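Lab manual, section 2.4: Encoding a predicted structure.

Procedure: take the sequence of the chain (493 residues), apply the prediction step described in section 2.3, and record the output as structure tokens. A sample record is shown.
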Amino acid sequence: MIKINCFIPFVSKKQVEKTQKSLTESALVNKVVLLDAQKDPMAKTTTIKKIAAKSDCDYTLIYTKQTTLNLGYLALERMVEIAQASGALMVYADYYAFMNGERKNIPVIDYQLGSLRNDFNFGSVVLYKTSALKAAVKKMDVNYKFAGLYDLRLKVSQLGKLVHINEFLYSEIEEDTRKTGEKLFDYVDPKNREVQVEMEKACSAHLKDVGGYLEPIFPKVSFNSQKFEYEASVVIPVLNRVKTIKDAIKSALSQKTNFKFNVIVVENGPRCHSWDGTTEAIKSIKDKRLVHVIPTRKDIGVGGAWNLAMNHPKCGKFVVQLDSDDIYSGTDTLQKIVDAFYEQNCAMVIGSYMLTDINLKMLPPGKVDHKEWTPDNGRNNALRINGLGAPRAFFTPVLRKIMFPNVNYGEDYAVGLAISRNYQIGRIYDVLYNCRRHDENSDASLSIEKENLNNLYKDRIRTWELEARIAMNSKNKKRASSKVRKVGKRAKK
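Recorded output:
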């Protein structure tokens, strides 16, 4: 008979009693091993190695939370059944979460090649095929303090499938009841920097293993290959932002530069333009540098708005992003960004921003600068994180070769990844931008279903990009091998 060893974190006898009872009700459970949550936290590599050493059954279950777990009826039997039927090396499932006494459905998403986020939600219960767990642990050659579980699943994914069971198989208690907009910036909080550095290291090692790692070798960018009337254009896509659009436009127009620039505002949406007074607010600003674009199509999203802007005859050599909710931190932002293109010889520049409320009062974590990015490894780390920072700016000739996907979420991330495949991304660590958070932000309070759709799409973007990088590396390797063979033949002659 198939048997399972279960590993759960131990804080106190009261904390584990119900979880232990729920697990042992299944005839499949061989034993439940309690791991000291202080001495052996699940995130440590040494803990994962202890689990692998102690597990002597067909399957190994790891429960990662310190709250009560209640397994559904025959849940473990179902997980084993799916694992065997699919040949999966690890399975995970949808679940119920009790939040403030209320039970909520928490569906999770399918794992794919590009599911490289270290915060990918598997839920708190994962079931590994023990032989795969042990094989993966043998490949874990770095002892991480925070990235142990992350390193494990990356190593297991190299060996076979990680399968999502689209069924609600257990219940847990969720203590983090914040809205999505409040959780959004956890990964860039300076207090988590040590964690991020470890996660980056683990991800980069994985990319090397699968053939998707890119060396820090970049072609030189020629900035004078085409002529432009304007050196730079600030691009503002907008839909129904009557309360903030004038602030954004005035912030852009107030820039002090030693070059000629303009501001291109592009409306979008199912009616071609806004219907809350935004259109009229834009028209009320009289400035020859302001280009107001109202599409004739009704299928233009944020990405489509960017495509319209960068292909506009008045578009400058560099296009610089400004969201319709936000403002630049000073009148020198545009100058700093354009200078960075020339100084760092890059096709894209990303600055740093301050997180604030609508009245510019700082919100935690405050300054977001992605300092964990290094010039040598930024484009590899970009495949792990869910965003590239702000403000973003692009060299227009390169951008026109790539184009934005015509979507309302993830369009900038997709383009940034594609550019980083072939070009250096420049960085500015000074605060250039005030990211103003308010209740009307599009990501302020998402349903779990909408959040899943967003995450699934970004994982898909990463999958496409990783596949492209693997193919490019393979092609370059074959080309290099061919050159070596040719040189060898000449030497023999």
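Check your result against the sample. Residues 232-443 form a domain with the Spore Coat Polysaccharide Biosynthesis Protein SpsA; Chain A fold (CATH 3.90.550.10).
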